[in-house]
Amino acid sequence: MLKRIVRKVFVGLFLFLFWPFFLYRKYGKKDINFADGSTIIANHYSDFDPFFIYLLAKKRDRLFFITNAGVKKKWITRIFCSLFDCLYVEEDEGFKNVRPIFDAIKKLKEGKVMVIFPEGVIRPTKEGFFEFNKGFVFIARKANSTIYPLYIYPDLLPFKRTKVYVNEPVPFEKIKEKDDLTAAFYLQSIIMDSSFKVG
């Protein structure tokens, strides 16, 4: 409880101090209310992408993030991750990832909302996409989690507005017959299409 309060205070203070950098314009779905136990996926162009998802969410204390353990190597991303509820996965270390994967499934079943950037790395050129890793589909499948695909185009100059396109949620029943790789590609294609809709 104390950690949650401290986290909310620090995130609130950070956004209060740097609010000119975190203005955004929302496109797509009008009413955003991420369902309990759902999964939010997005492309990854900036270290600050998680903050825009945080700002979109109504139940912010329900969010948790899956992130690459490599973020701990950079001081700025290490600080950011300390502000959020994060589970860390190791790149190419399958057996080490069993616990965070099953922790994520447990959290989803408890009604928490998972946020993950399936590309696994940032694409700072803000052009195109890396192929989505399929691991998030396995987690969503085990928790029968509805998936919200988001497209984020960050503009981090002061008083400029980052563009966020929120697609309609995809119930897992719609993709449960697909294998994990095909489902990941399908969901990525939704986000790719969104990139042409924000102008």
- Tally the beta strands: 7
Number of domains: 1
Indicate the CATH architecture.
3-Layer(aba) Sandwich
Quickly give the structural class: alpha/beta
Per CATH, the class reads Alpha Beta
- DSSP helical segment count: 6
Query: If you compute it from the alpha carbons, what radius of gyration comes out, rounded to the nearest whole angstrom?
Result: 16 Å
CATH superfamily: Glycerol-3-phosphate (1)-acyltransferase
Strand order of the largest sheet: 1-7-6-2-5-3-4
> Could you say what the CATH topology is called?
Glycerol-3-phosphate (1)-acyltransferase
Binned strand content: 15-25%
Question: Explain this structure to me?
Answer:
The structure is a single chain. The protein has 199 residues and is an alpha/beta fold. The chain has one domain: Glycerol-3-phosphate (1)-acyltransferase, CATH 3.40.1130.10. Strand 3, helix 3 and strand 4 form a beta-alpha-beta unit. Helix 4 runs parallel beside helix 5 and helix 5 crosses helix 6.
